Amino acid sequence: xxxxxxxxxxxxxxxxxxxxxxxxxxxxxxxxxxxxxxxxxxxxxxxxxxxxxxxxxxxxxxxxxxxxxxxxxxxxxxxxxxxxxxxxxxxxxxxxxxxxxxxxxxxxxxxxxxxxxxxxxxxxxxxxxxxxxxxxxxxxxxxxxxxxxxxxxxxxxxxxxxxxxxxxxxxxxxxx
Amino acid sequence: xxxxxxxxxxxxxxxxxxxxxxxxxxxxxxxxxxxxxxxxxxxxxxxxxxxxxxxxxxxxxxxxxxxxxxxxxxxxxxxxxxxxxxxxxxxxxxxxxxxxxxxxxxxxxxxxxxxxxxxxxxxxxxxxxxxxxxxxxxxxxxxxxxxxxxxxxxxxxxxxxxxxxxxxxxxxxxxxxxxxxxxxxxxxxxxxxxxxxxxxxxxxxxxxxxxxxxxxxxxxxxxxxxxxxxxxxxxxxxxxxxxxxxxxxxxxxxxxxxxxxxxxxxxxxxxxxxxxxxxxxxxxxxxxxxxxxxxxxxxxxxxxxxxxxxxxxxxxxxxxxxxxxxxxxxxxxxxxxxxxxxxxxxxxxxxxxxxxxxxxxxxxxxxxxxxxxxxxxxxxxxxxxxxxxxxxxxxxxxxxxxxxxxxxxxxxxxxxxxxxxxxxxxxxxxxxxxxxxxxxxxxxxxxxxxxxxxxxxx
Lengths: 176, 458
What we know:
- The structure holds 2 protein chains of 2 kinds.
- Chain A folds into 2 domains: 3-50 and 132-172, Alpha-Beta Plaits (2-Layer Sandwich), CATH 3.30.70; 53-119, no CATH class.
- Chain A is of the alpha+beta class.
- In chain A, helix 3 (53-79) runs antiparallel to helix 4.
- Chain A is rod-shaped, with a radius of gyration of 25 Å.
- In chain A, 47% of the residues lie in helices and 15% in strands.
- By secondary structure, chain B is an all-alpha fold.
- Chain B has a single domain, classed as Formate dehydrogenase/DMSO reductase domain (Formate dehydrogenase/DMSO reductase fold), CATH 1.20.1630.10.
- In chain B, helix 4 packs across helix 14, helix 5 packs antiparallel against helix 15 (410-433) and helix 8 packs across helix 9.
- The two termini of chain B are 21 Å apart.
- Chains A and B meet through helix 1, strand 2, helix 2, helix 3 and helix 4 of A and helix 2, helix 6, helix 7, helix 8 and helix 16 of B.
């Protein structure tokens, strides 16, 4: 299904933030916002729900740490017990450092991989930019023209009130 | 009001840059032809790298007998270099993770290069234990994997195994942190590249990043998570390195002060190395507006703080030896200060405790050549610290009949020089192919210290 999108291009973060807030106030659907850097406050303005990645990281950290404790216990006390300097086979305190490292490793690698997964980022992916310059010095606010009450000319005027440098309509096969 | 705000919080970036100018200033030197100075620097550092490679090839083919080790001193130059390089790396993580958690936004100008330094330093450090195994082709035996040697597992009680896990985790996490931070900048390079190979290569690694805020939101979360994980990680790494010594019963090593002492020393030496590199990079890549005197000033303050902790640790060690009543412990410390390696001990104290006191003066902190010289001396001093700790304790332990001297051979010195060659070669290549400054992060702090713009609307 094709979608009609209206893209407003801005030069500063203040204008972008104001434009997002105004659009949402008027009930327009903000599909996405593009920015060359992480602008403080955009997620609140867009109404994005907080990311659930911290829970994934926490779960993976617990999993990694837990697996490692079990593995160290199994290798040194069950599978091939070896007397090292008369220490007990199950030397739990001595297992702490490696357990900690493996916990961090699981949590960190998991955080990065799940970030790539949820954002759909992968090597050599074909890049789709809404307009040129969003990785340099332009900010773009993309609205969806949901129904016939959406007046592109009126919205364009609103964007221009916020010093939009350029406003264009785009038709896409899928969400941008 | 606005003037007062500026006086209290001067802008982080000088020259009143626009967003596009930041992109240009950082990317343009990479896109231009390298300067003659860069070629000369690369030639020198890669010559050292070649020397080191030849030395390593020689000692692997002949054996560890090419080193100056003996039955009394089984650990010396290689482990000194290992601890030295690992320590260098720690300042990069301090800047990238700890200062991020403390919301020190001035870090944006230096974090990319500092993280690069971390990764290269850990690479240099990794060389030494691997060649010290004598048979580096069996280095994979460190992995706990099911094997045909009677399913013999590695000894998880050994600090050397802890070290292996700590260093490999540290390297992996630092490399990921660096890459994640670089992702938006790689996209910037891709979108402004004119050369086809550059666009292709940046396109491959930028993973299709397009600045969508849905990705930015998660990016910020992942960055925070990695910083939160990196902070205890970096402290654990040098703690574990210090346990390589502290879990031995040797006087001078067997001390509970070792973990904080080593972590502070690591950050001290690393901060000095960051400053050394930054002073070179800002000149070489013309980034004086981004890495300003104020950045250097703040890093100098970190140097003097950690210098004070290190100095206190030196004193505490003597006090503990005295107070312990152990004659072996007392002898080791007297031997360090007055024994055959007294010159190394006093070089260490001079470079690490006395010289950094100059940084109390604002005028010294603002004079770049002086800061550069002090940082070089700190690095010399910190190298000697590890050498003194390792060699003096081993060379004169409990039984005088065991006492022996140690002197490095030419092969060992060549390996050390080679590690410096590797480090600087990698750093110079980094300066050419990767934006030295975190472009996307610097854009976020451009407004810092500027009066808020009057809005026409609202």
